Amino acid sequence: xxxxxxxxxxxxxxxxxxxxxxxxxxxxxxxxxxxxxxxxxxxxxxxxxxxxxxxxxxxxxxxxxxxxxxxxxxxxxxxxxxxxxxxxxxxxxxxxxxxxxxxxxxxxxxxxxxxxxxxxxxxxxxxxxxxxxxxxxxxxxxxxxxxxxxxxxxxxxxxxxxxxxxxxxxxxxxxxxxxxxxxxxxxxxxxxxxxxxxxxxxxxxxxxxxxxxxxxxxxxxxxxxxxxxxxxxxxxxxxxxxxxxxxxxxxxxxxxxxxxxxxxxxxxxxxxxxxxxxxxxxxxxxxxxxxxxxxxxxxxxxxxxx
Length: 306
Description:
Distance between the termini: 79 Å
Largest sheet: 8 strands, mixed
Helix content: 40-55%
CATH architecture: 3-Layer(aba) Sandwich
Number of domains: 1
């Protein structure tokens, strides 16, 4: 009995001491340790827009084909480039990388650590419509700078990429999401020869009372039946016009319904197909506007490099 009591006292003292030590011990800090994502980086000041852009370039480890690397240009590069580059780095270690050929990725972003520069992209990615008084953009950011931004890509960025890397100028793809998807459509409808493949993810067709559809109608009238029009991919998340059950987002319900993200994207793709355009439509189930960006990037890689 005495031995049992002694053991019990020793156990209680040890447990109490251990508790006291753990309560007083500070947790080990977790220092920042950024993951290494392969990138060549350069900031370019554009004379076309007066804005500085951060350009991130992924160059494959495999040698270029005789015709040069195909190129994928990504809008919102701060957010989209890390995902695309990581996927391509992983593909380089696979014996069968899904049929992807080596290709260059060019992320067009903005200086700073933020994934999105909301004010800059609102101006750079929206078309120069005659009337910008009711665009539906509630941020108060400048609008209508898409043509200046496209001039930057065509006159300043593309020549630098072509001079620095062995590329195939006949196989270039552009990807954009949301306002970026709107810019992709504006490029297709007003400068269709700028790229051979277009990926418009969750495009903001609602912007400025669906002004982009007037550009689409005008472009379709100019597309000869004998020509080889660009390849077009349109994607959207299935939840993008479904109001959220979260009571904190109740004020956005009418806005989501009115913007018709899913219906607009589906109808646009169908109209392009009806006019002989090689267009594909992809609906990502159980994905909202933000979540649909990642699977759309996977489709962009396939479109550019398969």
